[in-house]
């Protein structure tokens, strides 16, 4: 019988570490390594706990070396060694595994070499979804961001030359050259204002006031561009997720793409764990629900009814009596699409066929519950 190239346990570890998110062990190793690196710089704490600090640092390093070697071996087995080595993840893994040993090998003192453990923090980055979203926003908004950067640099250099010209004779030690004036311009334009370098001539102070106002405007523009980009990206992601969920509901299957897009803008998604109460009997109803994934249980007098994917509920309170007529809870992890009362009325007006279907189902359920 042929012996497997990789043990089952090792295969599971590779599958886990090749995912986008880090394993729990990797998070523990990163946090432990950073904590020990910090203690290494606190002499009283290190002198008291140096055996534990050194042992944990070496244990973390051994974990990252093992993780790197496992991924290298897996890449070699799939003939993708260079793809992995030259990827961002491969470079981060290599830096985390080799930086400290190489520094020690070249004679760097241990306390200094272990500071390179800060590179382990980079291993957390691939698992942060927000960073991928930030990258997309930066790419999409690169034109406006670069335009504001040009304005920033323009004001920076103009202000530096102006204040150098106005202050060089009265403050030669502070504004004796343009690089020195650039330091003042950066501190002022970023509204930091350390106060170590300050113009004293009337025109110099006028330039300073102009630079401070420009700094507020420039950073306001950057903030507005990024905020707008993030909002647009978030709406796009939510639209795609909702579209995917809507397309799974048979109730909307007969709608065309334009109508589905219209419905998608109105619906919001709700992810719920098992045994979560959604509706309580006697409460006022202001929305209805469509089941995209999962299952709910309707607690009716004398019986319990289960509704699965594609079903909807909560429409009775929107069509007639606005009080909920039953308790409804999830029986397993579920994804629901929520349609509020105002959007419900708009949707029914735009799509009479849906209105008829919902009305017919409501009447059928009302007869069953009598």
The sequence of SSEs as H and E is: HHHHHHHHHHHHEEEEEEHEEHH
Oligomer: single chain
Supply the helix-strand structural class.
alpha+beta
Intertermini distance: 67 Å
Count of separate structural domains: 3
Overall, the morphology is extended
Q: Number of helix segments?
A: 15
Radius of gyration: 31 Å
Topology, number of strands: 8
Strand neighbour order, sheet with most strands: 1-8-3-6
Sheet having the most strands: 4 strands, antiparallel
Low-confidence stretches: 1-6, 17-21
Main location: membrane
GO molecular function, one term: protein-containing complex binding
Membrane topology: Multi-pass membrane protein
Domain Cyclic nucleotide-binding: 251-365
Structural summary, described in words:
The chain has helices spanning 8-17, 24-40, 43-77, 81-85, 88-105, 110-113, 129-140, 142-167, 172-175, 178-189, 202-248, 257-266, 316-319, 341-350, 352-369; strands at residues 268-272, 277-279, 287-293, 296-300, 303-307, 312-313, 327-330, 334-340. It is of the alpha+beta class and 370 residues long. It has three domains: 8-127; 142-232, Helix Hairpins (Orthogonal Bundle), CATH 1.10.287; 250-369, Sandwich (Jelly Rolls). Helix 8 (142-167) crosses helix 10. Mean pLDDT is 81; it is low at 1-6 and 17-21.
